[in-house]
Amino acid sequence: MNSLILNTMTRILLPLLLIFSVFLLLRGHYLPGGGFVGGLAAAVGFALYEFSAGKGTAQCALRLEPLVMMAIGLVLAVISAVAGLLMHSVFFQACWLTEPVPLLGYIGTPLTFDVGVYLAVLGGTLT
């Protein structure tokens, strides 16, 4: 589509939507948000970019095939669910790192699960 307004606004909105989707992803464990809503926000940004720039350019910007992204997300979600069993606890038991990560704090399996859901939703929506 050759719309000057759409092309200009897409260049502004795509980075903002991606930053907002990461914000929703990281905020979602204790507050509203999470991997599902963050993945949908990122998918909206890439869909808008596809309308503006075309399918080939949008696929180059995504840098990963949507099916591969969905598969990686499902593997991360399953690993985070099974981690509790591997730590001699129950299925889906949250496991945390003992040392905080700079800028993120303590990372555990809930964040890994949310990232997996984020990637699965983003890949599934863009497929």
Task: Explain the overall architecture.
The radius of gyration is 17 Å and the shape is elongated. Helix 1 packs antiparallel against helix 2, helix 2 crosses helix 3 (55-62) and helix 4 (66-86) packs antiparallel against helix 5. The protein has 5 helices and no strands. The protein is mainly alpha-helical and 127 residues long. The model has no long low-confidence stretch (mean pLDDT 88).
Brief account:
The protein has five helices and no strands. It has 127 residues and is mainly alpha-helical.
Global geometry: elongated
Low-pLDDT residue intervals, each spanning 5 or more residues: none
In round numbers, the mean pLDDT is 88
Strands, total number:
0
Over all CA atoms, what is the radius of gyration? 17 Å
State the helicity in percent bands. over 70%
- Please report the distance between the alpha carbons of the first and last residues: 20 Å
H/E series, N to C? HHHHH
Strand content: under 5%
Structural class: mainly alpha
- Oligomeric status: single chain
**Number of helical segments?**
5
| Biggest sheet features | none
Helix/strand layout:
Elements: H1 4-27, H2 35-53, H3 55-62, H4 66-86, H5 109-126
Helix pairs in contact: 1-2, 2-3, 2-5, 4-5
Quick tags:
127 residues; mainly alpha; 0% strand; elongated
